Amino acid sequence: MKQITDNQMKELFIKIPLLKSVKTSLESDLKRVTEYDSWQDDAIDAINFNFILSDMPRSGNISDKTSKAALKVEDIACKEKREILQQILNEIRCVDNLLQKVDLALNSLSEDERLSIVSKYWEKKTWDEVARESMLSVSQTRRVAAKAIQKINIIARIRIEDYEVLKINFG
Fold it and tell me: Model-level pTM?
């Protein structure tokens, strides 16, 4: 299993806030699709209930081409919907797995290490600002941050394949 490089981890770490937003958006998409499903099921149940209450004789068989075509369209729509749901779930799992790994690694860092990389890469502060916050020199702060990225990379064990998928799907 080939892991990503420290530079790739730095690129990935910079994108963690974006990935958190992507996950939230995907979860919202999933909720919207499943809510639509509930609404659609309710509408179908209402139609079926009205059909049962009608005076027309029921044979239980679909006798006309229109009904058969409608059922075929519904089957295709259900299949497409299942595929969309599966794709959304796979993307959520992929992002969530990566976020959990990085979070675990981040929690294993010292306070100085965590402060240096969060301030620099998530809060977009300059090295001077990060150094002032941590009461270290700029060169010391850079070394602490580089060491932190190495630690995260070792602990998170992000595979190159997963990194490439995330890069393709989410920039």
Answer: 0.69
